[in-house]
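Anyone up for a design puzzle?
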């Protein structure tokens, strides 16, 4: 994980987390206050309704008390009393818009006056919610009772119900009255009437509707939270980039130098703090490294040039022992480079093979002159001794870790191997033979057959080409043979340029 990411995460941890926790705590507290506010508003609305109902009932009670004490009651047993008092009660019922009747009942339980004329003379058996005694104005003895039959439906005139909010009544028996509908979830407040304690008024509201305003505020809250969080993130990114940018430049410059090996690069750090000092120290170090690398490159070039000269000279020495010319070494080197490049090896690897191929016969320095320069045919024993030069050359070169000498060891070891497996020293077959050995084999044979020597004349080209075509898939790699004939003009141009002169 990069230091930029670590810095951003650290800044977010010390800012965004406390901010989020604080906002959620604040939002939770605000939501609880809103819940309380909604419940309190319902309670206020209910209290106002209860007050109006209590005042209404109290007014009725006051009116009935006045009627019970009025002068009309002094004639309670006179003729035609029931009609006059009943008319009074009927008028009062109409004035109050009551659902229910008013009764005057004597001590025997007989209705002597009623707002409903049809009930006069009947026995009274109900238990109305309110009654008041009627006393004689002479001796103040109880002579009758004034009853109020008050239907609870009268209270509905005070219920302002809507689709989301409704009132209903719970009576003393626990029964629910005048409840229009049932919400899936609701918030409810309730309170008993002061004038009729057995009657409880309930006000409830659909919870989803009641909390819709909270959902709106919650949405606003989350938008605010997100915007605030985004601002914190942007600030963290800006601050982290400002803090890390010099280090990023330093890191990028160091990475570029590592990849490009260009020690002329310098990091630009404008700050004057510790990071700026680090940048200055880095530039000084790179400048010193450039000087050192220039010296090392010069030394390496000198070593490589010396190494190439030594390799070429040793190859030439090996060839001179077997009566070959220096130009043979050069031509084989050029042929090898051409074959390697067109085979698909890189330019650098093709060049390295060109430099290594002159060492293909270096092992001949260990072969006795009597065998190496014998003009006639070798005996079997002499040929076996001659074949040892491949292994001897490999042993001479393989101990080095230098890529050039490693390549030369492969060439020396495998340039006499054949595609059909009948070569030496190991009898390798096909692609078991390293591509360096397969290339040098074809280059060496082509040059040996096409070059004049003091002891022989060069073969005609047609004869050479016929042999090479014949040995396609036998001695030589078929693909290399195809490349040879495809680019034959390049091989002939090299041979002409580097031809031997006697």
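Challenge accepted. My sequence:
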């Amino acid at each position: 994980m990069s230091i930029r990411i670590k810095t951003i995460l650290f800044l977010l941890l010390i800012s965004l987390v406390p901010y989020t926790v604080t906002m959620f705590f604040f939002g939770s507290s605000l939501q609880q206050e809103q819940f309380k506010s909604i419940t309190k508003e319902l309670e206020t609305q209910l209290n106002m309704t209860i007050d109006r109902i209590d005042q209404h009932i109290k007014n009725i009670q006051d009116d009935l008390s006045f009627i019970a004490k009025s002068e009309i009651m002094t004639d309670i047993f006179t003729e035609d009393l029931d009609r006059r008092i009943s008319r009074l009660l009927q008028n009062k019922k109409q004035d109050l818009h009551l659902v229910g009747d008013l009764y005057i009942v004597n001590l025997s339980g007989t209705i002597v006056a009623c707002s409903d004329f049809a009930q006069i003379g009947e026995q009274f058996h109900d238990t109305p919610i309110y009654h008041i005694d009627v006393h004689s104005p002479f001796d103040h003895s109880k002579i009758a009772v004034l009853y109020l039959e008050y239907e609870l439906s009268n209270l509905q005139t005070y219920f302002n119900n809507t689709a989301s909010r409704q009132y209903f009544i719970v009576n003393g028996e626990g029964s629910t009255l005048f409840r229009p509908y049932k919400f899936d979830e609701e918030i409810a407040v309730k309170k008993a009437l002061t004038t009729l304690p057995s009657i409880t008024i309930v006000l409830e509201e659909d919870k989803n509707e009641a909390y819709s305003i909270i959902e709106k505020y919650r949405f606003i809250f989350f938008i605010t939270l997100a915007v605030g969080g985004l601002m914190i993130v942007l600030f963290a990114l800006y601050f982290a980039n400002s803090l890390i940018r010099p280090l990023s430049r330093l890191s990028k410059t160091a990475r570029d130098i590592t990849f490009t090996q260009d020690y002329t690069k310098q990091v630009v750090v404008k700050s004057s703090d510790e990071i700026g000092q680090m940048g200055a120290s880095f530039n000084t170090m790179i400048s010193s490294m450039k000087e050192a690398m220039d010296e090392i490159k010069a030394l390496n070039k000198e070593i490589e040039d010396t190494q190439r000269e030594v390799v070429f000279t040793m190859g030439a020495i090996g060839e001179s022992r077997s009566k070959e010319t220096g130009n043979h070494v050069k031509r084989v080197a050029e042929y090898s480079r051409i074959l390697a490049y067109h085979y698909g090896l890189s330019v650098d690897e093709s060049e390295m093979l060109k430099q290594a191929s002159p060492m293909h016969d270096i092992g001949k320095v260990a072969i006795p002159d009597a065998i190496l320069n014998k003009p006639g045919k070798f005996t079997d024993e002499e040929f076996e001794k001659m074949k040892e030069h491949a292994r001897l050359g490999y042993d001479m070169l393989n101990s080095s870790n230098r890529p050039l000498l490693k390549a030369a060891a492969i060439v020396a070891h495998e340039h006499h191997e054949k595609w059909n497996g009948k070569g030496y020293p190991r009898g390798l077959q096909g692609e078991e033979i390293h591509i360096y050995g397969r290339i040098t084999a074809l280059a060496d044979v082509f040059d040996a057959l096409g070059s004049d020597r003091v002891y022989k004349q060069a073969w005609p080209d047609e004869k050479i080409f016929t042999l090479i075509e014949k040995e396609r898939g036998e001695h030589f790699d078929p693909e290399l043979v195809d490349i040879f004939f495809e680019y034959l003009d390049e091989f002939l141009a090299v041979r002409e340029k580097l031809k031997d002169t006697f």
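A detail worth pointing out: The chain has 14 helices and eight strands.
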